[in-house]
Amino acid sequence: MKLHPLLAGTMGLLAAGVLWEAVAVGPMAGTALPTLSSTLQTLVSDASGQEFWTSTLQTVGVALLGLAASAAGGVLLGVLIGSFPSARYATLAVVEFLKPIPPIVVLPLVVLIFGPTPTM
């Protein structure tokens, strides 16, 4: 018998929540691991305040600005490098070296260099 994907996902989410709660009140009681119930209560109380949504909108705005800037820069560099054969040959080794590195690996280095603030 095959479960519907939505039902399977819901059951997995519920199982993860039950496991989280059991570990937080059992073997990890008194440590830095909060219970699921206290986490959800804090989320609800924070989400009802203005500061939560202001911070969320600021974070999304900075992320979208970064996405737009990197997309524009990438397209501009791609067009320039693709338009001039000498630029293509000059950058080929660097581009081929950096191509297999996932961008998520570079993110911690960028945060360390520029800092985790909106003025990065």
Characterization of this structure:
- By secondary structure, the chain is mostly helical.
- The protein has a domain at 50-120.
- Helix content is 78%, strand content 0%.
- The model has no long low-confidence stretch (mean pLDDT 90).
Task: List the topology elements.
Blueprint: H1 5-25, H2 36-47, H3 50-83, H4 85-98, H5 103-114
Helix pairs in contact: 3-4
Q: Main sheet, how many strands, which sense, barrel?
A: none
Report the total helices.
5
Tell me the fraction of residues in β-strands, as a range. Answer: under 5%
Computed Rg = 23 Å
Task: Measure the end-to-end span.
Answer: 52 Å
Which spans of ≥5 residues are poorly predicted at pLDDT below 50? none
| Helical percentage | over 70%
Number of strands: 0
Mean pLDDT across all residues, rounded?
A: 90
Q: Any idea what the shape is?
A: elongated
**Structural class determined from secondary elements:** mainly alpha
**What order do the helices and strands follow?**
HHHHH
